[in-house]
Amino acid sequence: MKKVVTIAKREYQAMVSTKAFLIGLAIMPVLMTGGVLVPRLLSGIEQAEDRRIVVVDHTGQLFQPLQMIAQQRNLMLQTNVDDDENPSAPDGQSLLISGPKLSEKEKSARSVMGLEDIHRYVMEEMPAAGFDDQQRLELSTQIRAGDLYAFLEIPEDVLKISNPLASGDLSRLSLALPEIEYVAEDAAISDTRRWLQSTLNQVIRGTRLAATVTPQNLPLVMIELERTAAVTGTGLYSMQSDGSISSDEKPSEIAATLVPLVIMMLMFMIIMMSAQPMLESVLEEKTLRISEVLLGSANAQQLMMGKLLGNVAGSLTVFGVYALGGLCFAWYQGYASLIPWHVLPWFLVYQVLAVLMFSSVFMAIAACVSQLREAQSLLLPVWMVIMLPLMVWIKAVREPNSLMATGLSFFPPSTPLMMTLRLSTGATIPLWQILLSFVILVGGTVLGVTAAARIYRIGILWQGKTPRLSEMISWLVKAPN
User: Fold this and answer.
1) What integer pLDDT is reported at residue 317 of this predicted model?
2) Does residue 351 sit in the same domain as residue 441?
C-alpha cells in the first residue's frame, strides 16, 4: 500500500505542477464558453450596409405596404444607431431605446421589426409581366457579382381566397398558402428571409382580411388578431409547513436549459483533462523504458493503481477550482439560487467513478501502442461513447424521464454524464433509478479497471508491432506466458 501511495503522490504532483495543467485549467472554460461569448464580443465589428432586394409582385398589392414597412424599419434602425452614438439624447427622442434600458415590450418590438439585424433593406420593384427564367438568371448574376443582395417572387394566388367548407370538400382544407420564393446566396440561414417571412405574412393577412371585412372595422379586426395569450410555466404545487398550498417558484426557461448543460460540460471537461494526461504519461514511460525501471520496484497492479489514485486526486483539484470559481461568480451575479445543491454529492461520486473508468481505459490503450498516432484510432470509439450524452442532451433536458434518457443512465460509460444531467433538471428522478445507476456504474468501473489492468500488465512490456484487437481480447481471457 505504501508503494501505491508513493506512486499516487508522484503522479498527482506531476499532473498539477506543470504549466500545461495550469494553462489548460484557465483556457478550458474559455473554449467551452467561446461559442456564446465571442459572437457577442464581435457583434459591434460588423458595419451596417444597404441590402438591395428586388421584389417581383405578381399580386400587384403587396409591394407598396412591404416597402413602407421596410422604410419604417430603416428609420427606426437609424434612430437607434444615432442614440447609441449620443447617449445623452433625451428620453422619447427615439422610437426604441438601445442598450440595457430595453424593456420586454421594446425587445419584442425590435424582434418584430427585424432590428436585431443591423443592415438596411432597400426594396425595388420589378414588373411581374413577362417575368421568366431569363430574368431570374440575370438577377442571380447580379447577386453573384455583389450588385444585388436578393430577389423575392410573390405568386399571384397567394391572396386568392377559397372556401372549401362551403362546397363540403374538406380534402382541400389547408392552412398553407403558396410558397414565396426568396433567392439569395445565404437563403437558408438568412435573417433577411426570416424578417420577410414574418412581415409578408402580416401584410398578406391584412390584405386577405380586407377582402372579407369592411374598411371601417378592419383596424379593430387587425388589433384583435394580434392579441395573444401567454402560456407561462410554473412549478408544481406542494403543501407548505404552515398547511397552505402553493406552487414552487416560477422556473426560468434559460436556467432550466443552461444549468444542466453547464454541470454536464463541467464533468466532461474534468474527465477530458484527467484521462488524456494518463495516456501521455503511460506512453512516455513505455517509449523511454521508464516503466521497466518502475516495475523493478512495484508490480504492474500497484503501478496502475497508484497512477489512477493520483489522477483521481488531480480531477478533484480541477473540480475544486472550477466549483469555487463558479460559486463565487454565481453568488456575485445573484444566481446562487439556481445552483442545484442536491446534485453536488452525486456529481463527486459519479466524477470519481468516471475518472477511474476512462483513465484506466486510456492507460490500457497507451500501454499497447508505441506512438501517439497509433492510439488515436483506438481512442476514437472511446471518445464516441464518452460524448454520446452530449449528442442527446437537449432531448434529455426536455424529457429527463424518457425511455432514452433512462436507458442511457443504465449504460455505464454514459451513466455519469446522463445521470448528472437528469438530476440537474429539477425533475423528480425515482430513487431506485439513482441507486441502480450507481450500482451499475460501480460494477462497470470495477469491470473496466480489472480488464484494463490485465491489458496494462502485458502491454506495458510489449514491444514491436501494435497488438491486434483480437490479441488484446485474448489477454482478458488468458494471459500469455
Assistant:
1) 87
2) yes
For the chain, what percent of residues have pLDDT higher than 70? Answer: 72
Is residue 119, in this structure, part of any structural domain at all?
Answer: yes
In-domain check, residue 40: no
Q: Which domain holds residue 60?
A: 50-162+173-219
Q: What is the pTM of this model?
A: 0.62
Mean pLDDT confidence for 41-52: 69
Q: Is 427 a member of any domain?
A: yes
The count of other CB atoms within 10 Å of the CB of residue 209 is 15
* Range in 33-37, 55-59, 117-121, 272-276 with the lowest mean pLDDT: 33-37
What residue type is assigned to position 166 of the chain? Answer: A
410 contacts 437 by C-beta, under 8 angstroms: yes
Split into its structural domains, the chain has a count of: 2
pLDDT band at 88 (very low <50, low <70, confident <90, very high): very low
Residue 115 within any structural domain of the chain:
yes
Q: To 10 degrees, what angle do helices 469-477 and 431-459 make? A: 100
